[in-house]
What does this fold into?
Amino acid sequence: MTLLGIDLGTTSVKAAVYTSDGSRVAAAARRHVTRRPAPGHAEQDPADWWAGLTGVVAELDASGALRDLDGIGVCSQVNTHLVTDVDGVVLHPAITWQDGRCAAVAGTLTERLSEQDRTRVRGGLGTVDASHPAARAAWLAEHRPDVWSRTASLLAPKDWLLAGLTGSAVADPISSIGLVGPDGTHPDWLDLLVPGLRALLPPLADPASVAGSTTGAGGLPAGVPVAVGTMDAWSALLGGGVAAPGDAIDVAGTSEVVAMAAPGPGGTAPGIVTFPEWRGLHVHAGPTQAGGDALTWAAGVLGGTPGDLISLAATAEPGDLLFLPQLAGERAPVWDPALRAHWLGAGFGTGRAELARAVLEGVAHAARHVLGPLETAAGGPAASLAACGGGAHSDLWCQIKADVLDRPLRRTTERDAGVLGAAMLAGLAVGTGTSVPELASRMVRVEREFIPDPAERGRLDDAHGRYLAAQQALGPLFR
It folds into this structure.
């Protein structure tokens, strides 16, 4: 048995082929760029996504890894949207989850909803934010009426990718959180936000069901079943081994996503996203705005690559310097697009190494800010967290996060957990896996555990208090 997982992420298209025990046969990746043509804008060209897909497929095919595939699974970045015409032609650059241009129009949309309907927006957050598809639709209608008049579909990247591979765009309830009513369909109130919005959204199906079969597009062999798939963060939960109540994870990608499975429905906490139950999993999560992205930005400012900056940070002694990573606002748990980043507490002894270490700690403090309300929503503390994503490659950063969170981190062997999770969804879809726990038990492995250093507890507890106080005090200056 071999399964192909594809992850259309914020910075790259990644793909890998796995055997039944989760061993990676071959993998490939192609990067794409985010363009920022105006303040607050963050766009991507779907043509770059397709070029990345064909590139990774060609590389995997050359290795022989695509022979005799049993199934294909896909996942992608979410809260990124693109619009197409009746022929499937992309009409406008994709507006990504990092884009804040729609914040003003989003505020006016929330006012149109009843109190009951507000509780169903974005997993219980209660407001239409700048990344909501209704906000994107309203912005296009107002600022790009020529585009909006020709729009026939409003799609997430995964849905668009499925259309390219199988001929059919299919959405899933997890990626579409806040867009799905109690009956599993798109609710009527979406048309109160933007008239005709429901008709532009693709049909919904279970992430582990078959969307269709490959047509040969993109260089993939024809006739292979493709699972509907889901968002990259949820896929990473599966690939990181979240399979039962109490399981928790830190996904260290472009943003930092902290998530935890609860024993049952009903728990909530301010700023935390509550997903609909899926195959026995009741998951709460909090995505930050900048995780690895903060390190990438700092590397550009301070000089060198992100890897250089991590090496430099390892030479710095732990200190009192703080970094707030809100470079483009913050998502969970405060959901404030106006927040901005800061280094605080610099002195004459502060150099590049100290600034670099503060970035690593600042991202960890953002994750800790999420972990508190997340555990409240899940009904109890996390005994430990799985760790995956690009940021988990660094031993130093994993140890810093374990220290700041005061929880052991169990780093998975497969860092690209979203790719593995997509392959696991394919296994469920084609019947080579029987359940999430069964697949996790044989396909997910832990490579190393990082234990919190008790000697760091006092310093980091104090630092976290100052981090929260600084964020609260500085926020009003930028609103």
